[in-house]
Hints:
This protein has a six-stranded mixed beta barrel with strand order 1-5-2-4-3-6. The chain has a domain of 98 residues: Barwin-like endoglucanases (Beta Barrel). The protein is an alpha/beta fold. The termini are far apart. The protein is 13% helix and 18% strand. The protein is built from two helices and six strands; from the N terminus they run αβββββαβ.
Amino acid sequence: MIAAPPSPLPTPAHGTPVVTSVPIPKAPELPPFIGSGRPPKRPRRRLGRYSSAMLTLVLVVTLAAGALRVRDGLLHEPQRPLAFLPVVVYPPIRLGGALVLGASRDWHVDRDAPLRLGVPVPVELTAYCLKGTTRRDHYVREGIIASDPKVFPLGHYLEVYVGKTYFGRFLIDDTGGVIRGNRLDIWTPTCREARLFGRVKGTAVLVPKPRAAAPDTVTTGRLGGARRSG
């Protein structure tokens, strides 16, 4: 079988344009791909001011409600009161006190009844500065007082007041030739102080010997005012 020769291209008619070829634009070169191949992550969305305020308000209301429930005893059982054993505190030094009242005007030294503890007695106070020992063979020192043993017996204790001034607690340990009746003579280490003191009116109260007291705190009396410890 003999193939037919190709037919000649048609000849364009007069006035018809003939398109021979169309130019193709060159594709742009792409940069090399860098990455893991995963799609990029979107940025996290932050809460706005309104959302933050609402969240804070919700938290505050929740905490307040919880506190009220705890206070009302809805979450916890009521607490029982704690019971402690009683503690008794004893003072280290217990001194016998005396209630001092105003001295009665009708008191006199030559009465029949003996002087009782706690009875205020109007007295006349003087001072002396002699050295040596007392009637009871003790060395003189501050806190020693001389009296009439018929009124104020030796070996007892007196608390002396001059107006509102507390002279202290004295030991009746000495006597004197001119000490009679309700007169008391207070020993002082300086004779000048004794002369300046002169004669003063005051009040004396017979008190018992202090119990459970240190030896240096039994007598606190001195001319002009009580001795302060410490």
